[in-house]
Amino acid sequence: MIKVFNHWFHRKTVAQVAVDLMFPVVCVVLAAVWLGGGANLELDRIVFYAIIFALTMIVLNSWLGMYQRVHTRTLAETRARAVLSLYLAIPLAYVVFSLLAISEVDRGFMLLSGLAALFATLVRRVHGAHSLPGSLLRHRVLVFGAGEEAENVGRVLAKSDPDIQIVGFYPSSNDSEVVVPAQVVLSQAMSLSDTAHSLKVDEIIVAVRERRGGALPLRELLDCKLSGVKVLDLASYFERALGQLRLDSLRVGWMIFGDGFRQTWRRTFFKRAFDILVALVLLLLALPVMLLTAILIVFEDGFPVFYRQERVGLDGRLFDVIKFRSMRNDAESDGKPRWAATDDDRVTRVGRIIRKLRIDELPQLYNVLTGDMSMVGPRPERPYFVDQLTRDIPFYAVRHSVKPGLTGWAQVSYQYGATIEDSVQKLQYDLYYVKNHTLFLDIVILFHTVGVVLTGKGAR
User: C-alpha angle 357/358/359, rounded to 5°?
Assistant: First the structure.
């Protein structure tokens, strides 16, 4: 994993972005030289346009979710997204290599070069060459512990990162019982540090909950770290690998003395300026869509067009969120709050469409301009559910230390859900955002949000 501005990126994601940047540039230059037949082609200008095209493709691929941290989709779906990105790239290639060229000769060379790069990229993706060989990214991990925590780490590792190779589980003296399979338990004949060096381990994950009474071989762990082997505790590992703070591995001391959870005046100022700028631009662009939506709502189910509801915001303060009404007027006629379900029968036909495309959220841009919300942050919940979730879920109130957002890390990382368990999962992503939020992470989340809207997936 590689950390950029407090946000963790998978090594494979960084490699994919690097290849997607270099490959079109190389293809364009080679194609232009070959087609030019030795003419004076001004390679510096060709490279400049090729980089513009490559960067545009990276943005497009980000919107389509090609660089997501954990891939749960099938190979067929991945290839379908790749083909879709290439179809969308054809007009982009025409714009970049035709409209930006100065002379007619250059324009023809640029367009042909761009199409050659598109064709080569298609061949590379379809034949699975988009990923670098696994041996180049293979990461050897030793898990210290053999109990329930260690078994959980092994299960998450296998599911989240196929390039991780678990060399084995080294038992701790405080393991109440060995839960992992016997064939993966390492012998204690050698010390932990000697075992790590003999197995050429890159990283050690400490999966032991009880650390008192000499449960951890601190001297040996220090020797491993000083020799270049990374040592991570459970909370730090889950934060880095999954982009979430797991509640079952979280401790108050780790939150207090660790990095993150900072809210400086600079961060507050720049986030507010960013929110105002983005909200104004989106509001101007979305006005025709919002007007059409209002007309359709009135035509199907009458007034009111907007729906106001009390939500919990920064530091627990209450405010009224504004959305387009997507449910019938009698949706909660009994006065009892209820979770919104995936196929809720209270949703109107127009409501189902605008919820799918996130159009119902657009009036919240007004909440962003008034300062009650931010563009990016945890989803604001109703006081009734906040009281329930704060009582049932530890650390739930931590999410209220930042402004709620129109979109957020949980919304782009977790599927739709409306249960206590779903709230636990989304809270773990919200806590990651609260700990690591920066302007850079806000931009990453906004890019992912476009992809979620295009594919109709993600949390609400």
Answer: 90
Q: Taking every pair of C-alpha atoms in the chain, what is the biggest distance, in angstroms?
A: 79
Question: pTM of the predicted model, to two decimals?
Answer: 0.79
Q: What is the pLDDT of residue 46?
A: 73
Range ranked top by mean pLDDT from 19-28, 29-38, 194-203, 414-423: 194-203
Alpha-helical regions (H) of 37-174: 43-63, 75-94, 104-126, 134-137, 148-160
Distance CA 327, CA 329 (A): 6
Q: Do residues 437 and 264 make contact, with C-beta atoms less than 8 angstroms apart?
A: no
pLDDT band of 100, cuts 50, 70, 90: low
- Please provide the distance, in angstroms rounded to a whole number, between the alpha carbons at the two ends of the chain: 28
Structure tokens at 70: 């954990």
d(CA 297, CA 165): 54
Sketch out the chain's domains with CATH numbers: 2-126 (no CATH), 138-242 (3.40.50.720), 265-455 (no CATH)
The encoded tokens of residue 90 equal 């054809």
* Separation CA 279–CA 369 (nearest Å): 7
What is the β-pairing status of strands 306-312 and 318-324? Answer: antiparallel
The two tokens of residue 139 are: 């990461």
The more confidently predicted of residues 116 and 431 is 431
Given a contact cutoff of 8 angstroms between Cβ atoms, the answer to whether 418 and 340 are in contact is yes
List C-alpha distances in Å: 146 to 161, 179, 188, 192, 320. 20, 6, 12, 13, 49
Looking at residue 105, its pLDDT comes to: 46
